[in-house]
Specification:
This protein has 137 residues and is mostly helical. The chain has one domain. It has two helices and two strands, in the order H-E-E-H.
Length: 137
């Protein structure tokens, strides 16, 4: 849309430049070396100029609105990304707190104990030597 607005405004400027540079007689209208039929009075030339100016303003308005919308969308996306990162960090902190609470509840949280030493749910503490083969008894 921005491109369309700029294109429309540029075309209006080009036509205006063509009208200004080509017209020497007060009651004829030439654009880029071509005579425009039906325009025979100064009033009609003025009306054509007003129409060109309206197209120029419309082109600028389209560009302005499209650029504003684009900036608003980018700002909203940036805010959503920030909210997402914030929620992820909050969830990560909650997960770490739950892990600490779980370790305390299991009673396995000791100083110097690594995460690999913490028993996994469903895993039994197994003695590497079976009592059957224990010869100390």
């Amino acid at each position: 849309m921005v491109f369309l607005g700029i294109l429309l405004a540029g075309a209006a400027v080009a036509v205006a430049v063509g009208i200004i540079s080509e017209n020497t007689a007060p009651a004829s209208l030439e654009v880029f070396g071509r005579h425009i039929p039906g325009v025979t009075s100064v009033g009609q030339v003025f009306v054509v100029g007003v129409i060109v100016a309206i197209f120029f303003v419309i082109g600028l308005a389209i560009s302005s609105l499209a650029l504003g919308r684009s900036m608003r969308v980018h700002r909203e996306l940036r805010e959503l990304r920030e909210e997402h990162e914030e929620s992820l960090s909050t969830l990560e902190m909650e997960r770490q707190q739950f892990e600490r609470d779980l370790a305390r509840a299991r009673g396995t949280h000791r100083a110097g104990q690594s995460r690999a030493d913490v028993p996994v749910a469903g895993q039994r503490d197994r003695d590497p030597v079976s009592p059957f083969f224990d010869q100390s008894a």
